[in-house]
Amino acid sequence: MLLELDNSGLNSKDIPQYWLDLAEQVNKDATNFEKWEELINVSELIPTSNRKYTTKISKLSSAVHKKLLCIAYENVLVQFPYLEQYWCNYAQWLYLFGNTNKATDVYNRAISILPKSIIIWKNYLQFSSETLLSFDQLAPVFEQSRLAVGHHFYSHLIYDQYLDFLKLYNKTKEYHYLVRRVIELPIYHYAKYFREFFNLLEAANLETIKYLISKEDLSKNYQQKWADLIDRPSKNKATIETQTKQQAQPQAQLQQQQQSKSAMTELKIDLRKRYIDLYITTQYYVFQIWQFESKITHPYFHPTSELTRDELNTWNKYLSYLETNNLKVNINSSNQVANSILSSQNQELVVIAYERCLIATAQYPFFWLKFSNFWMNLNMIDKAIDVLIRGIWSCPITHVKLRLRLIDLLILNKDLTNARTVALELCNIYPNLVDAFSKLLQVEQLMWNGQGGSKLIKLVESKLDEVKGTPFEESFDCMFGILLNYSCISISALEKFFEKYVNVKSSKYFWKAYLDFYFLYNQNPEQLQKIIGIAREKQVDSNLLSRYINDIEDVYF
Question: pTM (2 decimals)?
């Protein structure tokens, strides 16, 4: 925080003391969100000289106060990047100050961090509608929002704006296409979009009907062509006299128009039946989803309040439902329209549900691991790795499972350099964490291409010396057993390694590994019997070890 002030170009004498005091407090405890909120409030509402009243900051406020507001927002969003509404508020203030380009940059940064946030996209579309004044400028933004959050359960917040935008510019074809897309999605306000679709179908003419059914579907399902729905000239015989032909022509045209109208009416009736089937299918899945959505009371990020166990369980069940059921339906020939879309777009429904969940549960590693596993089940290891990296940045540093899992995936992806970097970082953060050191050992062995047996032993010896005499000494004795798993270490090297510690180690981990060495690896009955005797003389206090010795004697002797 203070570094930001140093680089801001502001003179400390120009900064109000009350603001500096709050800045100093958040600088000392950057995780104290209440102090950040207080700093934001005093930056937005400028106190009078006697501090009895406040004045809301505006475009006419001093450059110092506007700069302080920007500094406060920049820093709070670095500390808490999942505060969706704060991104929008910051951009709105910049827009109010006349900095449209900077406001756009803030929205772009917000989208890069929270690409599936319906709140950010809703506000960004409103902002874009005010600042971009042509269809060609606005259309890509609306389409980008559809691709990003179009499958969000509350995506009506962007579809309403999108449809109003198309209607404003009289884009009939695009309007029909968008309504047709929306009715295929299980979203909260699905019913009103179906009403709009049926209104469009009822009002369709020979031109707009093409936007509701494709040429291929018309041919496949109705054995018709566009020509069967439009007026055609009468086909009278060439031998008919001219006068008779002229009299007969209007009647032929009327008959053809009646036939055309009849064909159009029948098509509309049948299409309505088909899309009623889609309506019923969509309604069913919305009801299925609603049993989870209705229980989610805090779908946003809050740094200081923990989610209840019930809400966490709801998210977990919701995600599992989407994954296992996949919103799939049995496709059959009579209802292909109703079934196709829910199965084909299901992955995006699952992904956006995960992204929504991770906004609210950003500090819970369980959901980051669950999302990573989702991508792994689809054999998308790069995306699984990206999710873990995001989770590491989002969760408190005390949660080591994400880093341990990341090391595993980097190894699987044959990215040993980065795997080693993560393992070393974890060992530096938690030098007495056995799992971290074990992962480092695994990575080092792979980087040495199975030729570093002696190096592994030296690495373990160094660690054992480091923790000797500390409360962590016994827990690190499990390294003796772990080394038995590495085939790159020779039997003779392992034997010397164990003999070095036989007189100083009394933990059950050491002696179990030592017995395993002679029982499973270097099968020597005489030496094994000798080691059993030494273990009993030392009276190693472990019922487990005693039972293990008895089992060895029963099998071996």
Answer: 0.84
